[in-house]
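User: Some background: our group keeps a shared notebook of sequences we're curious about, and every so often someone picks one and asks for a predicted structure to add to the entry. Today it's my turn. The entry only has the sequence so far, pasted here. Could you supply the structure so I can complete it?
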Amino acid sequence: MTIVKRSMLVATTTVLAIAAALPLRAQDPAARKPAEAQDRPSPVVKKAEPSARVPDYFGQIGLTPEQRAEVYKVRKTHRERIDALKQQIAEAEAKSLVECEAVLTDTQKKLLENLRNGSVRTAKRAEPAKAPK
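Assistant: Of course. Here's the predicted structure to add to the notebook entry:
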């Protein structure tokens, strides 16, 4: 075997050995967290109130803290009205659906119900089966 081929074989073997050892290191619990971090409870992440967020892309244009506070204030003043409008939209959509269903014949209503139940059953089939207790 030539020196070049032997060097390539040694290099390849070394890379494979290192690559094979990496997953084992990643599974070691002590390797994941320092000892002092294991004792601390993980912080609770609160979901931000919608008005306490800036609109899309505003966070990327260098807002000053004063500008950010003003944007929060503006969004908070409009949040209640936006929520009320969203509720009105949901109610109008529900009313529209009821009126559309009123146009259907009894047979069509049964077919629609079967289709809706079938989509629920299909979604349930996609879920993993639960083990019996």
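Suggested note for the entry: DSSP finds five helices and no strands in the chain. The radius of gyration is 30 Å.
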